[in-house]
Design brief:
The N terminus is likely disordered. Helices cover about 45% and strands about 15% of the residues. With about 180 residues, it is an alpha+beta fold. A 4-stranded antiparallel β-sheet has the order 2-3-1-4, with helices on one face. It starts with 8 loop residues before the first strand and ends with a strand.
Length: about 180
């Protein structure tokens, strides 16, 4: 198979020895115009996620919406029960007694926000994902112990096999691997 005609590739992977080396490489890769990149390390590196452009997320807005919907649903449930479906006069207070609705509304707000956060995190992280092409590279097993990896995906608009491989090699990694699909 020719190097220019690698259609069965997920992308290219570069292996680094240190966290600072992979962060420097990620910053250079991002500034070179690559956007479909990902970094793998044995422990979280905040600078790495910032270097590859993972700082924008819709999660806070989803959690806010889930909390708002949960709170409105809790208040609506209390309103329907106390005012429409089964109104009971207790101690002369009105059927729509907002102070007594606050605890249930608060708890439903928390429940809605928490459930939205859990489900959104699972879906936004692409889970469950029992298979990923990076596991086709035998050296990637070291990502959980001592090595750092940077992957440029083939679906990146700037990706060209030869140019991207030359670029990754210019970052002085230990080695550059083809990642098969």
């Amino acid at each position: 198979m020719e190097a220019d005609n690698k259609t069965g590739l997920y992308g290219l992977m570069a292996e680094f020895d240190t966290a600072s080396a992979v962060v420097r490489a990620a910053k250079r890769t991002y500034s070179a115009g690559y956007r479909k990149i990902n970094g793998y390390s044995p422990y979280p590196i905040e600078e790495l996620s910032e270097a590859i452009g993972f700082h924008k997320t819709i999660l806070p807005w989803l959690v806010f919406a889930g909390g708002l919907i949960g709170g409105l649903a809790g208040f609506g449930m209390m309103y329907f029960t106390s005012v429409i479906d089964y109104p009971i006069m207790v101690g002369g207070r009105p059927f729509l007694s907002i102070p007594s609705f606050i605890p249930i509304t608060f708890e439903c707000t928390i429940l809605g926000a928490a459930l939205t956060a859990v489900v959104s995190m699972i879906l936004l992280n692409g889970l469950p994902q029992p298979y990923h092409p990076v596991f086709n590279v035998p050296r990637f097993a070291l990502a959980s112990r001592e090595r750092f990896f940077l992957v440029v995906e083939a679906k990146d608009p700037k990706y060209d096999y030869a140019e991207t491989k030359d670029f990754l090699e210019s970052l002085k990694p230990q080695e550059v691997f083809d990642v098969e699909k």
